[in-house]
Amino acid sequence: MTSAVETWIVVADGDGARVFEERRRLGPLVERADLAVRSQEDRHLISGRHGTVSGRQGHSQHATGMADPGSAAEARFLSGFAKGLDTAADEGMFEHLVIIAPPEALGALRASLKPSTRRRLEACDPHERHGEDAEALRMRLRTLRGVV
Length: 148
Known about the structure:
Shape: globular
Oligomer: single chain
Number of helices: 4
Largest sheet: 6 strands, mixed
Strand content: 15-25%
Mean pLDDT: 84
Low-confidence stretches: 45-55
Distance between the termini: 31 Å
Number of strands: 8
């Protein structure tokens, strides 16, 4: 299926994601506010620190080997977002995909995408860029593509 949109540029982190459209190669980026998502879990309220219990006799139990609940929440968010990208790819909403995210989030997103969506990946940028505007992202995209 042919899409009217050449490329989707996804700017994500473990807390949220923004989607920009590039309707023609090297053209302006248009943010799709309707596709922006934020995690519904407040990881600031989830403590990754686990206390210890000490007995009066000097014995203690340490909370070791416990998973970080904040990381688990990020993984759930990114996995769910990747499913949405898979659906959009299956529906032909974009031809190419660029993902800009910090290294851990980028790895989680890529690992969660279906192979058919992963084949649409044109470029990845392992940096935190969530706060950048469309023009700054367009310049970064040009650099990623080797166009100066």
